[in-house]
Every structure is written in structure tokens, then in C-alpha cells.
């Protein structure tokens, strides 16, 4: 099969597809609609001759470098890029000195783009302050980390912070279709099958750069790109998984039931299927958090802590590293002793309330702090448990209508065994048994 890039073979160093397809104007940018409308800071920066300092914060592949490049291109400013991974204070100062020299000699302004700016230490960030303060450059810093934790306050306070959102599947699809048809891309010299497009979208995970890299790899193999071509090009099998269809519900159901059945291997299999199919990791994390209380409960109280920590970690670092946190929580949930006593307890209590078993709050439990409450007898007779042995005192807590109802019936599984024994003794004492 003839490659789509045979025509470029004469050029010893052709630019990557992701670079060739980089937007030249703000109107060509796909996604980030909340940042590109009339009157937004980016629009003002493009339309104004005055320098401005920005921080672009967002996940990889959402267009941070692209937006910096577009600002430079549209405003005809010099574009100088520094990577915080490899640059030092000397490089920063040299770039600023060159920008000042250019500004003084020709009046031409410079866009100083610092990628991964959160990797700069305090001294390196301090070196940027004079240029930002005196507006010798239009400074744009890109970061995937929360700048409130990783950027020094003086630099952050002198800049606008713009938050970029992950690209949607529709956005990634639009990026790929444009690359196939645009002369800067594949120029319409081949086809991209709908199933192959869907597979590329899933593989991209919201990262436009990754989607174009995979498309380029597939285009090197064939003009007509199918799922099989994509699989061969990127060495990733297509996972048949429709996030809006039956597969979504079937896989998440099997995932939950595998954890409930304590089969950690099966649960990890379904976790991997969801991740590889591009399922939102936050959705997976939410299901694990629910499971920790619904199916484990007090049989292992630490399970909920692990699940919540995993959800927070996924929110903080995203994929692919976040899959380790999810796996951590899945294994903990699967191997923990199981109890659904908590979900049964709240279900029974809610059921009684919905049936009208409400009743009046006992007078001695009512709030007696506001003016006039004492005259109504609120709080009279309340016994403060801390004044009694073991912190327990016999008095009525529930309304009369549900005084004898039993909601929480713990199992003897895992850590809930001792809880069951303690609750039985407390309940008998409080009820006067």
C-alpha cells in the first residue's frame, strides 16, 4: 500500500502532523470556547498591542502551546519557547535580554512561552519577575499542575490565570477530520473509516496532540485507515465499548459485581477495559467510592478512605498515572470483608420517613439556645452523656413513632464484628433491656 507521506519523502525533516496542523488564528482553535469569545482575555491580548502575562493551566494536549503560538502569530510578535524541564536561570535571562534588545532596536515585542513552568524552582521563577513587572515580554506560562501550589505568588499575582478544559470527544473528532482533509495534513488523499475515527478518539483521551500522532502513525501504513490499521500502527487493540450503549452498562455492572464477589483479578480486568476504552476516570472513581460504603461499609472502615483518596488522586493527576490509584482502590474494595448493613440501614430509615413515621423531636433534645426557647421548655431534662460513666446515659433520642425501630443491623464480617457487639450492648442499655 502506498503511504500518504510518500510525497513528503523528499523532505529530510518533515514537520510532525501535530505541528503542521497547529491553528494559525483563534478561530481555528477547536475547543476552549469559554476562553475564545469576544471580550475574553485572549481576545484582548490578540487585539491589543500592550504586553500581557498569562498562565495557561490544563491537562496535556488541550492547546496550551497552540494558544501561545496563535497569540504570537496573529500579533506578529517574536515567539520564543523555553522548556522548564531543561532551561535554567541563565537561559531565562538570555531570552529576556534578547527580547529587550529587539524591543529597543525595532520595537517588536516578544512572546516568551515557558512550557511546564511549574518545574521551575523559586530562583528560576524570580528571574521572570522583572520582565513581567516591566512588560518587556508577553509572558505565557503553561502548566499541568495547580499554579497556586507550584508558582510563586509575586509571579502569579502579576498574571492572568486561564484554565483550559479537557477536549471532548467531539472536539478530538473535529481535530482528526480536519487533519484528514486539510492540505497541511493528509490533504484528503486517503480515508478515515468511522470506526477508526472512534478508536483514535478513545485512544486520545482528550489529548489532541496524541490523536494527531496516532493518526500520523496510521497514515504511514496505508491511505485508507481502518481500525486494523490503527491497531497495527499504535499497537493497541480496539476495545469495543460504547460509552452511551450496552457495553458501558454491562462492563460497569460486571466491574461492581466482581468487586462485590471479591474477585480482584476480574475487577482489574474490567477496570482496564474501561480505561483503555477511554471511560472518564472520574466516573470510575465515583463508582468505587459508592461501592466502598454500599458493599463494604463498616466491615472495613478504611475502604472508604482509600476510595476517596483514589478519587482525589485521579482528579489531581489524571491518566495514565491515575490508573494506579484506581487499581489500588479496586483491589482494596475487592478483598475487603463485605457488609451492606449501612445501605440497608439508611434505606429502612428513609422508607419510614417516606411513610410518614416522623414524630416530634423529644423536648429535651430541642435547641434551647435561642431567645424564648427556655420558656417553651426546650432542652429541659437533657442529660449530657459526657457527665456519665462510659459517656452513656439512658434517655429517649428517637421520636415516639420510631422509638422501637431497628435500622442498623451490623454483620459480623471483618471490623464490623466488634461494632456489632458494641452496638448490641449500647442499644440494650439505651432501650432499657
TrEMBL record:
Stored InterPro entries: AAA+_ATPase (IPR003593), AAA_assoc_2 (IPR032423), AAA_ATPase_RarA/MGS1/WRNIP1 (IPR051314), ATPase_AAA_core (IPR003959), DNA_pol3_clamp-load_cplx_C (IPR008921), MgsA_C (IPR021886), P-loop_NTPase (IPR027417)
GO molecular function: ATP binding; ATP hydrolysis activity; DNA binding; enzyme activator activity; single-stranded DNA helicase activity
Transmembrane segments: none
Example of a GO biological process term: DNA synthesis involved in DNA repair
Source superkingdom: Bacteria
Source species: Nonomuraea glycinis
Protein name according to UniProt: ATPase AAA
Keywords: ATP-binding, Nucleotide-binding
Pfam families named in the record: AAA, AAA_assoc_2, MgsA_C
CDD domains tied to this protein: AAA, HLD_clamp_RarA
Keyword NADP: no
Family under the similarity heading: Belongs to the AAA ATPase family. RarA/MGS1/WRNIP1 subfamily.
Claim: Cytoplasm is one of the keywords in the record: no
Domain AAA+ ATPase: 50-166
